[in-house]
């Protein structure tokens, strides 16, 4: 079998990419499954009051790099599940941490993880999913649900997450 090498790569300049903006989140698609067989990449502005809720993926690995601001994050299996992931602790004693610019969070498949912006200012992260798992379509549909503002419809979020390999462990929240 002959492998044909692409003759051109993809260069996304600063500010480039497709941006979806709602009151709940701003996501800029930098690299999608249309451009890469290995990963999809996004820049995400996380507003104050947004909590993605603890969740896990069966198939994808994720990487988060905090560019600006502060986020509470976790990436571990808790000893005991509760509705507030900020109080979780792993068998080895890990707890959620405050991630600041330069922090990297790597999440293997099956690992519970979460992030929330509890500061008074927006935070910005670079997010990568591998292999590309239709995250751009997931974000498009999620942001459509979140356009309403306030507490999102739990049934709509549950259906969306099930279709995109996301097992929700605690609720997604956005305090507008």
Q: What does the model show?
A:
The structure is a single chain. This protein is mainly beta and 176 residues long. 12% of the residues lie in helices and 32% in strands. The chain is built from two helices and 13 strands; from the N terminus they run E-E-E-E-E-E-E-E-E-E-E-H-H-E-E. The chain has a six-stranded antiparallel sheet with strand order 1-2-3-11-6-9, covered by helices on one side. It has a three-stranded antiparallel sheet with strand order 8-7-10, with no helix packed on it. Helix 1 packs antiparallel against helix 2. It starts with 17 loop residues before the first strand and ends with a strand.
Strand arrangement across the biggest beta sheet: 1-2-3-11-6-9
User: What class would the helix/strand composition place it in?
Assistant: mainly beta
Return Rg in Å: 16 Å
Q: Specify the helix fraction band.
A: 10-25%
Which ranges are low-confidence, i.e. pLDDT below 50, for 5 or more consecutive residues? none
| Termini gap | 54 Å
Portion in beta strands: 25-35%
Helix/strand layout:
Blueprint: E1 18-21, E2 26-31, E3 40-46, E4 50-51, E5 55-56, E6 61-68, E7 71-75, E8 97-99, E9 104-107, E10 113-116, E11 123-130, H1 135-146, H2 154-163, E12 167-168, E13 173-174
Antiparallel strand pairs: 1-2, 2-3, 3-11, 4-13, 5-12, 6-9, 6-11, 7-8, 7-10
